[in-house]
Each structure stands twice: as structure tokens, then as C-alpha cells.
Model the fold of this input.
Amino acid sequence: MLGAVASGKITDFFGRRGTMGFSQIFCLIGWLAIALSQGAWSLDLGRLSLGCGVGLLSYVVPVYIAEITPKNLRGGFTAVNQLMICCGVSIMYVIGVFINWRILAALGTIPCLIQLLGIFFIPESPRWLAKNDRWLDCERALQRLRGKNANISEEATEIRDYTETLRELAKARLLDLFQLKYAHSLIVGVGLMVLQQFGGVNGIAYYASAIFVSAGFSSRIGTIAMVIVQVPMTMLGVLLMDKSGRKPLLMISAAGTCLGCFLAGLSFLLQDLQVGKDFSPILALVGVLVFTGSFSLGVGAIPWVIMSEIFPINVKGMAGSLVTVVNWLGSWIISYSFNFLMDWSSEGTFFIFSSVSGLTVLFVAKLVPETKGRTLEEIQASMNPFTATK
Done:
């Protein structure tokens, strides 16, 4: 949350590329503090530093990807970020079964070093360069991204016109986010993050082993099955993102998480009623796997994709910070309260998560725009009336 609070300002000041490098310094310090720790204080310091780094990265990476990719590929490229996170978590989970935790923490420094070196070989976001009056650099970056023989004149003109329109507005402050002209973007961005987290994903992910044990199923088999389901479903989401569109994929995904939580809740209810003792553990496994697969298909990635698309660049930093903070706050609330909720009522907990996922389907149907195949400028102008009237 600390990293997320600062992410917008830092990203606007240092640029998208500079912020990625800055965040990796925090991550490097964090992993080294953990790997070399001699007491609890250094473990805590390492966790705090890593949290700041990840808070920055979770905002800047989707924004950078959205700003550099062509409109017809933007959704898939932004969703690849979630796929890489999924693959990284799965790989480190498997490696962590076999090696000491200090070595695991030391291995965490390798991706940090790769990205620190890698930022010297990638271009800055053309839209950030345009915002900072670096028009020549903007065109060079755009040409490098599209290929040396590509005609970038139309896209460069569109970015220039939109940036100059925004420049006519007064410099945005935090309170300006809550004006009516940004209401639709803010409701969609914050709403999707709230619904994503309160659908229970981090409670289920962090306590998967305990859920399987409570349901009477093997925790090892259940957890490995989750990993096996997660990666291919995330890949499928990437492939469908720019074909089916964000909105239908998000609704199908949310409907799936609703069904998965309902099946898991039903399993615990049957156990309490002493009905179907042989069947209920399998039902719990199926429910968690349906939830995991469905979440990986769309609910995991699409809110970050949409967040990176819907805010005008003059408020994108502040709005992105707010949305990212809301996401991590929701994550903390669910992670912290999950054990208490399960002690209160296991079936009730999953039925609550199922209801939130059902509400997500309605929210998407009524309020979330389809952003597939549209430029960032077109999306923002349609959602924020102040640009549409210029």
C-alpha cells in the first residue's frame, strides 16, 4: 500500500521506465535483507521493502504496457503481465518445495537484476514523453516500438492532439479526481478492484491448503491441481482478450468464480449437515479449481487492463495510485479476516464470496465499457465528457 500510494507521483515524475528501475531497487534490498537476515527485524524490513517495490510495479507495468502497444493488441499484452506473474508464482512455489528459504530469497534477486539491466534496452512510453513536451523523443520511441518502416504519423498526431487538449486544463489535484467529469472512470476503476478482492481471491490463494484440509481433501494434491489449472487458464485469457473483448470475458470469468465459491460453500454445508461425506471433499476441490480457473481467465487480469486504459493522462498518476491502493487494501482486509470468517462459518464465507462475484457480473454489464480495439484517447474521451466536448 505504501508503494501504491506513491506510484502515481513517482511514475509521472521519473517516467514509466525509470519507475520500474526504481521499484527493483526496493525489491533487491528486500530479497537481500531476507536472504541474509539474522533476526525477525531484518525479515520484516525485507518484507516492507519488497512490498513497496511490488506496490510500485503493480501500477506502472500495466500502464507502461497499455501506453506502448497498438490498440488491437493492447488487451492481450497487458494480460501477459498477469500470465507472467502466474508463471513466476508457480515456478517459485515448485522450487520452494525443494530448496532452503534463504536460497529461494537469493534467487528472487535474479529477476530484479534482469529488469534493472533490461530497462536500458527498452523505450520510454511515447505518451509520457508527449506529456512532458518531448515530442521528438515521443516520435522516436513510437517509431522504435512500431518498427523502422512503419507509418506512425496518424498515431503520433492523435497523441499530440489529445495531449494538447489536456494541457488546456488546470493541473489536476487529488480532489479533482472526485469531480463529476471523472466519476465514470473512477467508479469503474475502484469498483472493479473492490469486487476483485472481495470475491475472496487472496483468502482462497493464501489458505488453499487449509481449505482442502478442512474439506477433508489432500492439501498437496489440491494445491498442485490449482497450479496446473491456473497457468493454462491465464494463457487462454491472454489469447481471448483482444478477440472476445474485455467485457464478455470478464462477465464469464466472474460467473465462473461465483459458481466455484458456491460449490465450495455447498461442500462445507453438506459436511455440517452430515450429508454426502464421500462426495463433499471432491465438491470442495472442484469448487476451488473452478474458482481458480475462472479467476485466471479474466477477473485476475482485466481490472488491471481496464485501469490502465480509462484514465486521462493528466490524472492517470493519481487515479492509478488510488485504484492500486484500493486493491492492496482489499487484499489485506480479506487476507486478515479470512481465518475469522472461516471460524464463523465456512459455508457462509464462500456464499458471501459467491454473492460478490454475482454482483461483479451485474456491475460489469451495467457500468464497464468495452475498450477492445479503441485507442486510449478514444476510450478516455468517451468516458470523460470534458474531452468529448473539446
Q: What stands out?
A: The chain has a mean pLDDT of 88. Residues 189 and 307 are 5 Å apart (CA to CA). The two ends are 36 Å apart (CA to CA). The first helix runs from residue 2 to 35.
